[in-house]
Design goal:
Number of helices: 2
Largest sheet: 3 strands, antiparallel
Radius of gyration: 17 Å
Strand content: 15-25%
Strand order of the largest sheet: 2-1-3
Shape: elongated
Order of helices and strands: HEEHE
Distance between the termini: 60 Å
Number of strands: 3
Structural class: alpha+beta
Helix content: 25-40%
Number of domains: 1
C-alpha cells in the first residue's frame, strides 16, 4: 500500500513538472500577458506587439503585461 502511494505521488510530481515546462513563450511577439487562472494556475499569452495593446486586453482581468524574455526581434 505504501509503495502504491509513493508511486502515485511520484507520477503526480512528474506530470506537474512537465506541464509547467510545456508552457512556452512565443518568440515572435515582444509582449506577453501573464494571466492568473482559477485555482492558482498561471498561463502566458504571448501575442501582443506593444504593452499598450496588452494592457487594453488585460483591463479588468487578473493579468499582468510583461516583456517577453525570449523575443527574437523582427524577421529580416
Amino acid at each position: 500500500m505504501r509503495v502504491l502511494l509513493m508511486a502515485m505521488v511520484a507520477i503526480a510530481g512528474i506530470s506537474a513538472a512537465s506541464s509547467a515546462r510545456a508552457q512556452a513563450y512565443n518568440p515572435r511577439y515582444p509582449v506577453c500577458m501573464r494571466m492568473v487562472e482559477m485555482f492558482g494556475g498561471e498561463r502566458n499569452e504571448c501575442i501582443y506587439d506593444s504593452i499598450q495593446q496588452c494592457q487594453q486586453r488585460a483591463a479588468g482581468l487578473p493579468a499582468t503585461c510583461i516583456v517577453n524574455p525570449f523575443y527574437r526581434g523582427p524577421r529580416r
